[in-house]
Fold:
Amino acid sequence: MSQLFATIGTIAAIATAVVPQQGSVGIVRVSGDQAMSIAQTLFHTPGQQVWQTHRILYGYIRHPQTQQLVDEALLLIMRAPRSYTREDVVEFHCHGGIMAVQQVLQLCLENGARLAQPGEFTLRAFLNGRLDLTQAEGIADLVGAKSPQAAQTALAGLQGKLAHPIRQLRANCLDILAEIEARIDFEEDLPPLDDKGIISEIEKIAAEISQLLATKDKGELLRTGLKVAIVGRPNVGKSSLLNAWSQSDRAIVTDLPGTTRDVVESQLVVGGIPVQVLDTAGIRETTDQVEKIGVERSRRAANAADLVLLTIDASAGWTQDDEEIYQQVQHRPLILVINKIDLVQESQSKNLQSQIPDGKSQIFTSAAQNQGIDALETAILQIVKAEKVQAADMDLAINQRQAAALTQAKISLQQVQATIEQQLPFDFWTIDLRGAIQALGEITGEEITESVLDRIFSRFCIGK
Structure:
């Protein structure tokens, strides 16, 4: 079923996470012209409570035929247009868990509603003018935010901080188009068109588009995070490093080499960036079949990571095994973590530094003593900045769809410039200018196709 066709009728869905024996409240959301009648059929209020918009009623949900009690609940009423979808919306605030909300949802479906598709509530908000497309995507980003900085960036999109400059750029293009088309229809009655002035305006618009495109990598980093793999030979302190960094006991730590047999994950936030840290099995040649599988997984994790932390035992020095692992991962963004520094003298430390390959960041740590973690995080952020992917102090960031549209708009504007410089007729100028206007309109939803809407809102959760 297409998303546009899906906006017909009244929809219902569970709007909160359903977890067995967890969560004190579960919400069933209903939107559409039958929302109020469904609520009046199912919800019974004691006393003289007034059914008015933006009021919360207390009462009981009963089966309309058998009058069997289903739940004691609250009912929130939001009449159109003062609602999220700009339709009549009611929310049943039930007890949490599984059974209550599922029974209430089933009663809603039996009494005139149908199950909402993923993102359909937000789709209706967009189609009814409550949100533009960048704000709708901001909602999805806010729900999936993995760090406070990612949440702030999503809120900036929700507040229209991306939509405003995009609309202004599109309006500027429309003004230029109007000037050109006026010359097509009334050339003899108007003064000559200022070609250089038009090119100057187009260059300004293209420059602003380039500034927005520069936030793509930043946005991608905040949305997906950074994957960091801790690798090294057995018993160099990889698991201790993960535990000290995450301030937990996620990984088993012993003096026996080969303790870690699989990849252990921990989610952290460093400088506003979500970081997925992978503690891998020690890489070495082994006849143990289980350990051999772990070693192979370690190699795959290192190759898939955005950043590798090659961990070395300072007390053992730079070994041949360290060199072999280094040769396998040196092509990746890499930090050399010299661990167990508390076990060596300063002279040994300097000697170790002379053995380690140049050109890579070196951080000295003592995971057992919880030392060097701040320096490690600083080094990670420096590598991120070196890649020109900075997350700090960012108030907006575009996603891949928006970047593709902006890129197309920029290309179209460059083609307009080329057309002007070739002194082609005005009609040719307007072709690519209209392409830029359409591309910019796709970002906010002023010009959008049904297939694009399907692709965007299918990624939303049901109930949002």
